[in-house]
Request: fold
Amino acid sequence: MGEAGARVGFSLLASSPERVETFTSAGGTYRSPAGQIESIFFPGYDRALDQGGVPEFLRQWSDAAGRELDPQTATAFLANDPVALRAYFRRSEDEPGIPEAVLRTMDTPTLLLASTDDPLRHADCEQAARLMPKARFHALPGRNHSQTLIPGSPVLEMVNSFIASTREQ
Reply:
């Protein structure tokens, strides 16, 4: 699961762990995203979405990153309605996150992946792995937040290996 999916997954682990056999988060967090959206994208992301839609948002994000966004990320964002995306980002500011005391009780086998050039998510994933009894953390070297899953084959290998190892136990 990515950013939003990770929050859903962590919430599911907290409320109904019996419904989850294994959990994988790639570039996600258990913490509230309040105040972090600008650091993930760029200052003024909301204005860009409001005034120019997703294409303008992508142009400014690319400018802020100092490089072209990969085609997969651009395509995924272009499939979004800018009004819905703005609403999601605004609502994210109100999400409470999962308390660290609750993480200590989560004993579902968990794989946490984060890019080395994504300092917020990297630190969050390392911390969650320290707190969760059956969590493993793997850093993805040389990637930033938007590159967490690109290229995908090494990530898929890690996930498949993780799932296979949980079945062997």
The chain has two domains: 3-32+100-168, 37-92.
